[in-house]
Amino acid sequence: MSIDLKTIKHISKLSRISVDEKKAEKLVGDLNSIFDFIEKLNELKTDNVEPLTSVAETTLKLRSDEVKSKNLRDQVIKNSPKENEDYFVVPKVIE
Amino acid sequence: MSDITKQSLSELVENIKSKKLSSSEVTKSFVERSDKSKALNTYITEDYANALNKAKKFDEKPNLNLKLPGIPMAVKDLFCTTDLRTTAGSKILNNFVPTYESTVTQNIWNEGAILMGKLNCDEFAMGSSNETSFFGNVQNPIDKNLVPGGSSGGSSSAVAAQLTPITIGTDTGGSIRQPASFTGTVGLKPTYGSCSRYGIVAFASSLDQAGPMAQNVKDCALLQEVISTYDEKDSTSIDFKRNEYSKDLTKDIKGKKIGIPKEYRVDGMPKEIEDLWKKGIEYAKDCGAEIIDISLPHTNYALPTYYIVAPAEASSNLARYDGVKYGFRAEGENLIDMYEKTRSEGFGAEVQRRIMIGTYVLSSGYYDAYYLKAQKVRKLIKNDFDDAYKKVDAILTPSTPSSAFKIGEKTNDPVSMYLNDIFTVPVNLAGLPGISIPAGHDAKGYPLGLQIIGKAFDEQNILNIAYAMEEKINFKNNITDWWIK
């Protein structure tokens, strides 16, 4: 199994991380060496093994749907790179 | 008292409680030493003026019944602290100021401790040398240009250099235990679900745990007692009966069965690590423990499993950094272009690499081959431990396959960097507690650690074993203050 430049560009799209040619070529090398290492898992037969999704053997607890924090609107908005009064500003989405 | 910063946490607590020292005196000493130690680059954000003010306020009306009365403490910059910048070592969070406090840090302040600042770490805790931090390398106080380990490298360096009496780190695959081992300090990764993850910048949610990093086992037990609480704000927090770890601490480990897993004798392991392990076995026997050979047959598959599970969870957790609501934004021609440029410029190379691995293994057509496969092998790894614990009470291994390495030595080879975590990663995959204690030095005089792994929720037992062995080992860290001019 090997990851080519086309695959890297596809993953970069899915990840929403832009990569130029130089970075993409470096990633081909890096990811291939990491996946060579990961392929070791194929030595194991796991057909009848239950996947482990959580080590914490608990059932999720329900809690009442109440607001517990204070109104932090101003502080929250202040963390935004671009805001306009009560709104986060993003580049125009609808023409 | 001129040597305040040389005192252990337990001594400082005792001296403040008996009014031999004030919080102001203690805080001033650690602030001054931290200030003189900028060359180590341990702090990302200093909060010294506030710390001194809080100490003064504490002294005006001291509550000496608290567990950490007026004790100054710097913490890893992965814990959200209200109104104090929290970066996770990343450019993308360079200007992020949380509106809430992590549960673990809140527990610490509730017991009277005082925040001194935020400590350097690998970006989003992804790294084993602190070299992926946007805020630069951290120096190991043991020697110049030596990595302090990672990802909690600022934390390990600060404790070893006595810039803070104690601290907290986080451990996803070894990020507390490996840096503790590299700096001659003690680090505990608690059972998954023991310490709340609320307010900790997420890396891999099924593996992340916060834990104490200290100069000795007793201090470590005291801080664990403070930070381990059930928290309804973390859906994987577990409601179990927690010990008073420092009060219940005992050196009596007579008859405890300690397992030695043969699979941890890995190819190419330096002889000094093998020798350290043998010495550790003798120390454990001297303490009255019974040594039993065990097998953890899937050990070799732990790292490949980890490098699927952790990046997969990271790619999902880090999807939130889009340049809209907080953090860094790069301008783009349209919304998608803005996202792509923000993430390309805001994340460092290692974080991007892991997001891409994670995205790939979760992508259509590959999920079963990679992610599901890894979850199945994770089950086999956990089963190994479950079987072993039918025969033993704890497991003894080396903490790392080598001592600390030089800055820059492994940055070009991700896989060789990943191999650092070979002995620590299985513990996270199985959700177990593990502690690293300093146990000796290599030929270069660099510290080496031993790891004690326990059953789930059995922190008290591994703390006791560590406490008993610590006395026999009688380790002395050799810190020369070379960085202070």
Would you spell out the secondary-structure blueprint of this structure?
The complex is a heterodimer of chains A (95) and B (485).
Chain A: H1 5-15, H2 21-38, H3 73-78, E1 83-84, E2 87-88
Antiparallel strand pairs in A: 1-2
Chain B: H1 9-17, H2 23-36, E1 43-46, H3 48-60, E2 72-76, H4 103-110, E3 114-119, H5 153-160, E4 167-171, H6 177-183, E5 186-189, E6 209-214, H7 217-227, E7 257-261, H8 271-286, E8 290-294, H9 302-317, H10 335-346, H11 349-362, H12 368-388, E9 394-398, H13 414-418, H14 425-429, E10 434-441, E11 447-454, H15 459-473
Parallel strand pairs in B: 2-3, 7-8, 7-9
Antiparallel strand pairs in B: 1-3, 4-6, 5-6, 5-10, 9-11, 10-11
- Largest sheet entry of chain A: 2 strands, antiparallel
Ends distance of chain A: 43 Å
Report Rg of chain B.
21 Å
First-to-last CA distance of chain B: 22 Å
How would you characterize this protein structure?
The complex is a heterodimer of chains A (95) and B (485). Chain A has helices at residues 5-15, 21-38, 73-78, and strands at 83-84, 87-88. Chain A has 95 residues and is mostly helical. Chain A has a two-stranded antiparallel sheet. Chain A starts with a helix and ends in a 7-residue tail after the last strand. The mean pLDDT of chain A is 91. Chain B folds into 2 domains: 4-263 and 270-296 and 386-473, Alpha-Beta Complex (Amidase signature (AS) enzymes); 299-378, no CATH class. Helices cover 36% and strands 13% of the residues of chain B. An 8-stranded mixed beta sheet of chain B has the order 4-6-5-10-11-9-7-8, with helices on both faces. A 3-stranded mixed beta sheet of chain B has the order 1-3-2, with helices on both faces. The model of chain B has no long low-confidence stretch (mean pLDDT 97). At the A-B interface, helix 1, helix 2 and helix 3 of A face helix 9, helix 10, helix 11, helix 12 and helix 13 of B.
